[in-house]
């Protein structure tokens, strides 16, 4: 299985890092989780009731999927999660050669499916 290109993974990490100003990171963070060739963007919040534990909660925002076609290059697709935690292709969002256009779609949220 071909891994996600490191340069594009760093691009996603930078995008997540820029979503929340430094002074607010004790209240909210945007991070990514890598599993195989799927990258899930999550919004993290501190515990509502600290007495229940120190773990932050995570809300799934979007998923980027990388498919490496032979011999090189690759294709990225964007997915959204429904209330049953099932992923679906984002409507009217074509595949891209890099994650940039898909990250821009997540940020603009044209269908209101990524950020509530």
UniProtKB/TrEMBL annotation:
InterPro entries in the cross-refs: DUF3024
Name of the featured protein: DUF3024 domain-containing protein
């Amino acid at each position: 299985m071909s891994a996600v290109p490191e340069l594009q993974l760093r691009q996603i990490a930078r995008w997540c890092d820029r979503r929340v100003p430094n002074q607010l990171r004790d209240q909210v963070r945007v991070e990514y989780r890598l599993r195989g060739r799927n990258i899930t963007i999550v919004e993290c919040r501190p515990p509502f009731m600290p007495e229940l534990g120190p773990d932050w909660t995570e809300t799934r925002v979007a998923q980027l999927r990388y498919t490496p076609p032979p011999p090189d290059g690759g294709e990225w697709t964007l997915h959204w999660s429904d209330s049953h935690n099932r992923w679906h292709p984002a409507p009217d969002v074509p595949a891209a050669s890099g994650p940039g256009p898909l990250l821009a779609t997540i940020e603009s949220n044209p269908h209101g499916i990524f950020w509530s």
